[in-house]
Structures are given as structure tokens and as C-alpha cells.
Amino acid sequence: MAAGGLTLAAQPDSEGALDWYAFDLTAGTPPTGTPTMTSIILGHVRFRGMPNPRWWDFESSTTDFGALLTDTRDLAKLLFADFLLIHGDDWYLSRLDVPRGSLCWIDSLTVSDVFGTATAIPRADTTAGGSWTIFSTTDQNGGGIAPFLVIPASAAAALQASAPLEEVHLLRDETADMAWAIERIIEGPIGNPITDTPVPTATIPANAPAALAYQLATPLPANWSPLLPVVTPAGGLALVAGTVEGSDQTPASRLVQRLSFAGFQLPQHEVSRSGLRLERVTCRTRTSDGDAKLWVTRRGHIGAGEASSGLRYDDVLPAGHED
Predict the structure, then answer these.
(1) Domain check: are 98 and 190 in the same one?
(2) CB-count exposure of residue 172 (10 Å: 0-12, 13-18, 19+)
(3) Residue 323 counted as domain residue
(4) Does 140 share its domain with 228?
(5) The whole model's pTM is what?
(6) Domain boundary among 112, 131, 156
(7) Which of 156, 175, 204 represents a domain boundary (last residue)?
(8) C-beta pairs of 280-283 under 8 Å, 24+ apart in sequence
(9) What domain count does the chain have?
(10) Which residues are CB-contacts of 283 (< 8 A; sequence separation ≥ 6)?
């Protein structure tokens, strides 16, 4: 997308929305404009259970932040708890209205206190060694931070999403050292979601010569498709669609069909031990001129852990028994 002398690249979030954080600068510099000066009254950031700003004043027990269960590797949660318990009463909030479809940046910020002292607040990402920033744009060309904020027209539009047309779970099977693509919801012939997926059963031949019957492999659910690990030309690991001998499974969803394309390789790290839940949903929004937009998007969410298909080989069952 080009905005004046800028070229921006957009990547929607997991919900399919295009907000300020979805845009990165790829080329150009921001245009010059007439600066606007405004005065606002700051307010404290408030949240339930926050520390009180006065000493010898006990906080309410409405929220027990001490009950947070963290691991030494859970850095994000530890930083969040540190902010809540120690620095939560030192933050202020102010409102700044920005028109949609524009670029905005702050040239200077000055805070005047009740004693008449004016304090200039520098940008956090411009101080010596500073790298923390928010409401900024990543500069992919220069490798730094562009100091402006992109306000797309879609930021003011309400996004409506339908129930999933398709839902596929990508889960690891550590026992078999592979992964599975499980079709939970598939799109029907008229566009309606279908959740009823039949599970095949193994039938022992009626003329079995003995009381026990040999079974080469247990049947695989029709909505399970194997993803096998392979070594990429660069020496890494990837997952490719595979087949199970004796099974005639055919992917019914577009998501799994995409994984089954010849030559397609899914990087192995994309399917963690937590799994991955993929969805295809219909989205609708209305622009400022009243025009309605309708499209289908894909979403990714954290899955539900590992899975096991229960696939067994060289199995022996009583004759006449169905598994």
C-alpha cells in the first residue's frame, strides 16, 4: 500500500483485522505537515487490585496477584506481574483523537505539574540504548523504528465474523514422531459447516479360520491426515503430507488440501507441542461510505496439546469383534 511518499506492507492479525500494528514501512519517508498543539489532562491508569499510591494503605484482596503461577522461563508473565505489583501506580493515560486514514507522530511532549514545573518527555526509543516502543511502525528497509503511527481506515470499522466454515487442528504425536491434521469442521457443498465426520470401523472376516483374527493395522479416523517430518535442502526439518497404507483418506477441507500440495513443506516449528488450531471464517465490515465488504479469511489459534491416533499394527482380535 502506498501512502503519499510511503510504501507500507500490511499483515492482518490472527483475527483477520487490519489495525495500526499490522503495517510496516518498506520504503519512503513521512511527509511534512502543519503541527497541531493540544493540551490534555492526564489520568492515572486504573485496574482492579492495583497497588495504592500512598504508604501504609492496604490494597483490597479483590485480585490476588500473588497467586500467579509462573515459571522461570515465563518472562512475559513475570514482567506483567512486576508491573502490576511495583510500577502499576506510576502510569498515566491520556486520550488523543486521530482521524482515520492518516499518519500521526508526536514532535514533543511536555508535562506541567501543579508546581508550575514543565518537564519534557523524550521518546523511549530515541534515548541512549533505548529500544522499547509502542504505537510505532517498524521500518523494514532501515531495520529500525519509524516514529509515526498509521491509522488505517479499517481501524474505525466494526469487523463481524461468522462461525468457522472449516476448523483444522494440527497436533503433534510424539509417540509416532510425527504430526496430524485433524479436520473438525469442513465446508459443505452449499457453504454450510459440517461437523459430523464418520469414524471407520475394522470388520473381521466372517470366514476367519480361528477364534482370533489378525489385523494388519487399526483403522484411522477419516478426518485424520498424517504430517511426516522431512529434512529440507537447507538442513532444517519440515512437515509434509503423508499417507497411511491401506487408507483411502482424502482431505475434505481447503486448509488440509493446501498442506497436501506437491512440494509444500510446513516448517516444523509452526506446530509446537501446544498444537495449532486453524479456521476459515467469513468476515464482513462496512466502510465509512456505507459500502459493505465481505471476504473469507484464515485464523490461527493455540491448539489443545498433543494427540495420538491410536494407530496400531499387527493387531490380533477375537473373530467377530469390531474395533
Answers:
(1) no
(2) buried
(3) no
(4) no
(5) 0.59
(6) 156
(7) 156
(8) 280/164, 280/165, 280/166, 280/187, 280/253, 280/254, 280/255, 281/16, 281/161, 281/162, 281/163, 281/164, 281/165, 282/161, 282/162, 282/165, 283/16, 283/159, 283/160, 283/161, 283/162
(9) 2
(10) 16, 159, 160, 161, 162, 294, 295, 296, 297
**Of 178, 170, 193, 171, whose CA–CA distance to 252 is shortest?**
193
The whole-angstrom separation of Cα 319 and Cα 211 is 5
Which range marks the domain in which residue 47 is found? 2-156
Do 137 and 183 fall into the same domain?
Answer: no
Does 9 reside within a domain?
yes
Q: What is the pLDDT of residue 59?
A: 65
pLDDT tens readout for residues 116-174 = 899 998 877 766 555 677 788 888 877 778 878 888 876 656 678 888 999 999 988 88
Phi/psi of residue 312, each to 5°? -130, 145
**312 lies in a domain?**
yes
> Which three cell numbers, joined as nine digits, stand for 158?
466494526
